[in-house]
Amino acid sequence: MLTFIGLGLYDERxxxxxxxxxxxxxxxxxxxxYTSRLIGTTIPDxxxxxxxxxxxxxxxxxxxxxxxxxxxxEDEDVAFLTAGDTMISTTHVDLRLRAHDRGIETRVxxxxxxxxxxxxxxxxxxxxxxxxxxxxxPYAHGADGLPASVTDTIDANRADGLHTVVYLDIKVGHExxxxxxxxxxxxxxxxxxxxxxxxxxxxxxxAGSPDPLVEAGTIIDLADREFGEPLHLLxxxxxxxxxxxxxxxxxxxxxxxxxxxx
Length: 262
Prior knowledge:
By secondary structure, the protein is an alpha/beta fold. It folds into two domains: 2-109, Tetrapyrrole methylase, N-terminal domain (Cobalt-precorrin-4 Transmethylase, domain 1), CATH 3.40.1010.10; 114-258, Tetrapyrrole methylase, C-terminal domain (Methyltransferase, Cobalt-precorrin-4 Transmethylase, Domain 2, 2-Layer Sandwich), CATH 3.30.950. The protein contains eleven helices and twelve strands. The strands form three sheets. A five-stranded parallel beta sheet has the order 3-2-4-1-5, sandwiched between helices. A five-stranded mixed beta sheet has the order 6-7-12-10-11, sandwiched between helices. A two-stranded antiparallel sheet has the order 8-9. The protein is elongated, with a radius of gyration of 19 Å. It starts with a strand and ends in a 10-residue tail after the last helix. The model has no long low-confidence stretch (mean pLDDT 95). Its EC number is 2.1.1.98. This is Diphthine synthase.
């Protein structure tokens, strides 16, 4: 059995009760934290809290060389841990399909996702979000200006009146510095300001923590602010219903007259 468990958004306590039971009952546990991280905890703290040993795998160890994980799951109960909700990344889907090819039974135990938490924290309705996009560090995509994947997504969503979640790049143990790098919202806003200086943006920082932050303003204005510790993301609101506008004014401090209210 291979059980994919979403750990939630912030620390060792963010997991669901069902996920905790599945993890503690597993014979062995693996994890990856290159798609996202739990900023509020460490691997030793996770292991201590759940009374398990966790083997953390890098991208190559999951995507290219997962044979030992799959071999273990043929005879044992194996847990595979990810931040947020599992199966959000194609990496996790690929591993699950490889397990099925071997005749291994799989199970998914969900966790809270950044996108649903963002909807809850901002008051923007979940069904009014369009396609999400990821804003990479400039060195990661190797081109001048914003990638077309970002601008095309924002433009298409805005044309349909939909909100856009802009995930900000994470590099775990990047070869340039051998350290983890997290794009902050001010840096993301500075990059987006090349194309969208006067659009309204909403910063969501540390979702799932005891002190999440939600702040709104024009993109050029957000580029000059500081938002504290990661993880951060940005939302570009589309057309807002009256209740959504009320929420952004009250919860994010935006001026109502800069919103597109329908």
